[in-house]
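Page 37, continued from 36.
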């Protein structure tokens, strides 16, 4: 079976009526989104984050596959989250200690940062919905680590572009990121994703 046919078979999921009226079930063909994700190598932009407690933060993010992303928050000054390909370092400006570290593989964010992500992988896609304006939400999970949470990725249409994501942890906590600007023509330095370097620069 060709890749396009496999994707259509795996992702022929019913849509929910956005206006509350009964809607005919129709497939969500995300073949083009799958190609977009595999082609998305670098990105930089602004974001608005909604935390599990309802608070919001804004800032700048930089992404470079595989496995690297950096969030710099506008406030509090010095707050950062850096993934270096193996670890995620959370920098608390109020702490005199180094960043708190977590294995990247244990976070749903690792799915977005995968070098070889394929929406056709069996067991990866849990569901997909499309709004009336063409916005598509795709819920994915690591088939080999289903208990580590999931991520809902949001994509705009015409042209296809990443609009944001929601990370849902194994305990059910939700953190949503809305991308307010996106540039995929950047060439970020690898030093941006160096947790040790970022730690040294804080001293």
């Amino acid at each position: 079976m060709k890749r396009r046919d496999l994707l259509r078979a795996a992702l022929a999921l019913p849509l929910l009526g956005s206006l509350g009226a009964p809607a005919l079930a129709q497939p969500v063909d995300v073949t083009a989104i799958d190609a977009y994700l595999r082609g998305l190598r670098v990105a930089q932009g602004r974001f608005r984050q909604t935390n599990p407690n309802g608070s919001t933060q804004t800032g700048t993010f930089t992404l470079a596959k595989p496995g690297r992303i950096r969030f710099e928050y506008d406030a509090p000054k010095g707050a950062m989250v850096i993934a270096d390909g193996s670890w995620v370092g959370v920098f608390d400006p109020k702490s005199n200690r180094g960043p708190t570290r977590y294995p990247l593989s244990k976070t749903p964010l690792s799915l977005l940062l995968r070098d070889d992500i394929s929406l056709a992988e069996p067991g990866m896609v849990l569901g997909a919905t499309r709004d009336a304006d063409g916005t598509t939400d795709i819920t994915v999970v690591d088939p080999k680590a289903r208990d580590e949470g999931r991520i809902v990725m949001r994509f705009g249409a015409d042209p296809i572009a990443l609009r944001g994501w929601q990370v849902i942890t194994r305990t059910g906590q939700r953190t949503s990121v809305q991308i307010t600007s996106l540039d995929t023509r950047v060439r970020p330095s690898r030093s941006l994703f160096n947790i040790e370097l970022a730690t040294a620069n804080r001293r």
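The mean pLDDT is 87. Flag for discussion at group meeting. The first helix runs from residue 3 to 10.
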